Amino acid sequence: MDKKPKILLIEDDPDQIFLYQSKFEIEGFELVSSRTGDGGIALAKNEKPDAILLDLVLIAENGIDVLQKLKKDAMTKNIPVIILTNLVQKDKKAKAIELGAVAFLIKTDVMPSDVVKSVKEVLVK
Amino acid sequence: MNFSQVLTIAISLLNFFLAVVVLWRNRRSIVNISFFLFTSGISFWGITYVVAQTTGILFWGRLVFVFGLLMGGGFLLFAKTFPRVIKKLNVWQYILFFAPILLLIILLFSTGLILEGFTAHENNLEPKLGPAYYLLIVYVVFAVIYGIISLIIRYRRADGIEKLQLKYLLFGLTLFSIAAVTVNVILPTIGIFQLNSLGPIFSIFLVVAVAYSIVKHRLMDIRIVLKKAMLHILVSLTFLIFILGSIFAVAHFLAKRIPDLLLVFTGSITMVIALMFLNPLRGFFEKLANKYFFTSLYNYQATLEELATKLTAVIEMPRVINLIVDTIMKTMGLDRAGVLLLSNERNANRYVISKVIGFNEQNGISLVRDNFLVQWLINNRKMVVYEELDLLIEESRGNGARSSLMRLKTNMNKIEASLCIPLMSQDKLISIIVLGNKVTSDAYTVEDFKLLQTISNQAVVAVENARLYQQVQDFNKNLQAKVSEQTQDIKDKNLRLEKLLQIRSEFLDIASHQLRTPVSVIRGVLSMIREGDLKKLPKEKQDKFIENAWQKGAKLDTIINDILAASELDTQKFQVDSETKTIQLEDVVDQVVNGFKLEAEERGTELKWSKPKSPLSKVKGHVNFLEQALSNLIGNALKYTPSTSMVKEARSQRETKGVVEVAIGQEKNDIVVKVKDNGIGIPKDEIKKLFDKFARASNATAMYTDGSGLGLFIVKEIIEGHRGKVWVESVENKGSTFYASLPIVEK
Questions:
Q1: So what's the pLDDT on residue B296?
Q2: B198-217 and B3-25 are packed helices; what angle lies between their axes, rounded to 10 degrees?
Q3: Nearest 5 degrees, angle CA B290-CA B295-CA B296?
Q4: Contact check, Cβ <8 Å, A107/B516
Q5: Which among A61, A56, A43 is positioned nearest to A7, based on CA atoms?
Q6: Residue B652 near residue B680, CB atoms below 8 Å
Q7: At residue B334, what are phi and psi to the nearest 5 degrees?
Q8: B685 to chain A, minimum CA–CA distance in Å?
Q9: ipTM score of the complex?
Q10: Cβ of A36: how many Cβ atoms within 10 Å?
C-alpha cells in the first residue's frame, strides 16, 4: 500500500478541524492542520502535503493573502490548493481561481464526503 | 435836465425793456400782452412826462395823460389774467376797462377840460388842470383798487409757485400804485405838483419785484431770456453813455450850448431799440440758417418721435435706461443725470443705481436713503424741482415733512441735482430719474418740463416692459439654477443609496458567513452520521461530534437573534421620545446581573454587584432594549475573561481568577454603568473599531471563532438611541472596563 496522502487544512474553527480531521482519517488520509495562515505556510513547507484545504476567513489573516504567499513560494507553489470556505462572493472565487486555486468549495454546499471526493479528484490529476 | 429826469428816463427804459422781453417771450399770451401794455405804459408815461416838463408843449403834456390811462387799462387787464386766465373776459369787461380810456383821450385832445396848458411857476412848468380831470382820477383810482383787489383774491387762491410770483408782484405793484397815485393824481388835485416827477421813479419798485420774481420763481418763464438780454442791457448802456457823453461833450465844448434834448432822446431810444432787436434778429437768421445747414436746437416733436421709435427696438433694461438718459442729456444739454430703479427683490422697497453720468454713485443713493423722496413722489406723482423746494418747505405742514424737505433740499444741493422725475406704473414708483443742471447753467424752461413729462411717460412704459422682461430672464436663470441644484441633490442621494446598498450587501455577506459557519458544522456532522462514518469512531469522539453540533445549534440561535436585533435597531424603533417612560436604571442592572449568576458560577468567575441602597435619579428608557445592551456587556465580560474551569474555551491558561465587577453611579447629569473585567483585554489599535457592525477584536476571534460581531454594535445603537454614551478602557491581557451612561431626566 502506498503511503497515505497527506492533506493540510488551514482553518480557524477548532470544531471544523475536528470534523474534517475525523472524516479524512476515516477515508485513509493523513491530515495536518493549522489555525493561522503563517502556521499553515510553515506546515506546507515542512510536511509537503499533497493538497491544501484553505479557509478564506482566518483569525487575523485573509485567506487570499495566504494563497498568494503559497503560490509565490517555489517550495509550495506546486501543491494544489482547494478553497473551503463559507464566503460566497463571486469576486472572491474569481480571485482565488486566478491566483491558482484548483477548486472553490462552499462549506454548507458540500458535505465532508464531498470534500474528500474533490481532494481525490485533485490528487488524480 | 436835472437828476430826477435822467433817473426817470433810465427807469423808463428799463421798464420798456422789461415790457419788450415779456412780450417777446410769448406774443400770443394775454398775460404777456397785458403785462406789456401795463409796463410799456409806465415807460412811455415817464418819458413823455420828462419831455413835456422840459419842453412845455401841450401835445406832450396830453400824451402823458394818454399813457397814464393806458397804464391803468393794462393793469386792469393784467390783474384779471395773471398768472393765468381763470375766466375769459367778456365784452362788457373790455368795454368797462377801455371805453373810459377812449372817452378820456377824446376829451383830452378835443377840449381843454382835462389839461388846458402849462403855466410857468418859479422854475417849473405846472399843468393847468380842467374840471374833467376828476373823471380821470376816478378811473385811475378805480383801476388801481380794482386791480390790486383782484390780484389779492388771486393770491389767496393760488398755490405753489404762482403764489410766490403773485406775492412779489403784489408787493411791487402796491407800493408803486399807491405812491404814484398819491403824487401824480391825488396831490395835483390840491395843487401840489412839485412831487409829480417822483411817480415814474416809483415804478422801480415794480421793476425790482418783477425782476426778482423772474429770477427766483420763473415768472413768465423769462429768466433764460433775461439772462441773454442782460448782455444787451450792458451793451446798450455802454453805448448810451458813450453817445450821450459825446453829444454833450461836443455841444458843450464846440457849440457852447445845450443840445436839442428831443433829438438826443429820440436818438438814444432808437439806438437802444436797435440794439435790443439786434440779437433776436440775428437769432432769427441763425435759425433760418440752421434749418438749412444743420440743426442744433432741439425740436420737441422730433425728439419724442425719435425716442419712441428707438424705445420700441430695445427691451433689455440697461439699453432702455441708456436710451432715456442719453436722449434727455443730449436734448437738454445736461451736465449729469442718473436713474434709480426699484430693486427686483421681492417685497423690497429699495432702489438701486441703474445708471449715472456725472453723479457720484453713493450720492445718488443718498437721495432715497431715508425713503422720504420715494414717499413724496408716490403721493404727489410729480417731479421735484430743486428751485421749488423752498416753496414746498414753506407750505408744508408738520415739522416732519418740513425737516425732510429741508434735508432733501440739502441733499439735492450737495449732489447738484435739479430735478427728480418719478416714473410711476400704477401705484408703484418703478424708477426715479435724477437730473443735474444744464451745461450752459440756464434754467429749465416750461417747455423743458413739458418735454420731460412726456419723455417720462414714454419711459414708464419702456422701463416697466424692461422690468418684466428682466424678471422673466431672472426667473429662467433661477429655474436653471434650481434644476441644477436638484440634479445635484438627486446625484448625491443616488450616491448615498449606492453606499447604503454596498453596506447592505456587505452586511448580507458577513451575515451569511456567520450563519453558514455553524450550519456547515451541523450539516457536516449529520451527513457523517447518515453515511455511517460516526460508527467507525471511538465513543468519546462520537460524543464530541454530537456536542459540537449541539453547541453550533445554540450559536446559530444567538447569531440569528443578534442579526434580528441589529436590523431592528436600524429602523430606530428604540429611540427615546417624550412618551418614553422614566425608569430606575439600577433595577434593570440588578435584573440582568441576576440572570448571569448561574453562568458566572459555571465559569468559575466571580460576578460582583451591589445595588445602591438609595434610589438614583431616573432616566428615560425602554427596559427591554436596555436589558439587551447590559446583557451584551456583562455577557462579553464573562466570555472573554478566561477561568480555569473552562478547559475547552480557555486558550490561554492562567492562574488569575476571573472577576467581573458591575457598578452603577451618578456623575454630573448622567447615570453611569461600569462593567469591569480582568480578561483578555483589547489590542489598542482595535478599540476604535470595536463598536462597528461585525467588528471583532482579533484576540476575541482567536478565543471564540464564531461571535456575531454584532454585540457591541447593538449596545452602542441602544445606548446612543437613548441619548447616552458608551466607551471602553482596556489594556490587552489585563482586562477591559466598559462604560454606558444615560442622561438623567430633567425635572
A1: 44
A2: 40
A3: 100
A4: yes
A5: A43
A6: yes
A7: -95, 155
A8: 14
A9: 0.90
A10: 16
Cα end-to-end span (Å), chain A: 20
Kindly list the distances between the CA atom of residue B11 and the CA atoms of B6, B15, B17, B235, B460, in Å, as whole numbers in the listed order: 9, 6, 10, 16, 50
Nearest Cα of chain B lies from the Cα of A124 at a distance, in angstroms, of 24
Three cell numbers at B438? 444744464
Check: CB of residue B340 under 8 Å from CB of residue B354. yes
Q: Sheet harboring B606-609: ordered strands across? A: B606-609, B659-667, B670-677, B735-743, B725-731
- Rounded to whole angstroms, the Cα distance separating B611 from B673 reads 11
Q: Does B504 touch chain A (CB under 8 A)?
A: no
Q: Order of strands across the sheet with A51-54?
A: A30-34, A6-10, A51-54, A81-85, A103-106
B382 Cβ under 8 Å from any chain A Cβ: no
* Long-range contacts formed by A96-102: CB under 8 A, 24+ apart: A96/A56, A96/A64, A96/A67, A99/A64, A99/A67, A99/A68, A99/A71, A100/A67, A100/A71, A101/A54, A101/A67
According to the model, what pLDDT value does residue B363 have?
66
Q: What single string gives the DSSP state of each residue in B628-661?
A: HHHHHHHHHHHHTS--TT-TTT-SS--SSPPEEE
For B234-238, the CB contacts below 8 A with 24+ separation are: B235/B275, B236/B271, B236/B272, B236/B275, B236/B276
User: Taking CB atoms and an 8 Å cutoff, what residues of chain B touch A87?
Assistant: 509, 513
Phi-psi region at B661: left, alpha or beta (left = phi > 0; alpha = psi -120 to 50): beta
Q: Three-state DSSP class for A43?
A: helix
How confident is the model over A41-55, as pLDDT tens digits?
Answer: 999 999 999 999 999
**B509 closest CB neighbour out of A14, A22, A89:** A89
Residues of B in contact with A89 (CB under 8 A): 509
Angstroms from B520 CA to nearest CA on chain A: 4
Q: What is the pLDDT of residues B236-269, one digit of tens each?
A: 778 878 887 888 788 778 777 776 777 777 877 7
Residues found in chain B: 747
Q: How confident is the model at residue B702 (pLDDT cuts 50, 70, 90)?
A: low
Which of A26, A57, A89 has the CB atom closest to B533's CB atom? Answer: A26
Q: Which long-range contacts (CB under 8 A, 24 or more apart) does B701-704 make?
A: B701/A12, B701/A59, B701/A60, B702/A35, B702/A59, B702/A60, B702/B651, B703/B639, B703/B640, B703/B642, B703/B649, B703/B651, B704/B639, B704/B649
- Min Cα–Cα distance to chain A from B736, Å: 21
Q: What is the pTM of this model?
A: 0.42
Does the distance separating the beta carbons of A112 and B527 come in below 8 Å?
A: yes
User: Which of B502, B508, B517 to probe by mutation at the A interface, max A CB count within 10 Å?
Assistant: B517
Angle of the B261-293 helix axis to the B3-25 helix axis, nearest 10: 20
B404 Cβ contact partners less than 8 Å away, ≥ 6 residues apart: B370, B372, B376
Q: Considering chain B, what is the average pLDDT of its residues?
A: 80
Q: Suggest the residue from B531, B705, B706 to mutate for an interface test with chain A (most A CBs closer than 10 A).
A: B705
Q: What letters, b where the CB count within 10 A reaches 16 and e where it falls short, cover B250-283?
A: eeeeeeeeeeeeeebbebbbeebeebbeeeeeee
Contact B520 A86 (CB under 8 A): yes
Q: How confident is the model at residue B215 (pLDDT cuts 50, 70, 90)?
A: low
- B341: its cell numbers: 430703479
Q: Give the strand order in the sheet containing B351-357.
A: B351-357, B337-342, B428-435, B419-425, B384-385
**Cβ contacts (< 8 Å) between B528 and chain A: which residues?**
19, 22-23, 111-113
Whether B336 has its CB under 8 Å from any CB of chain A: the answer is no
Helix (H, G, I), strand (E, B) or coil at B286: helix
Q: Which amino acid is present at B369?
A: R
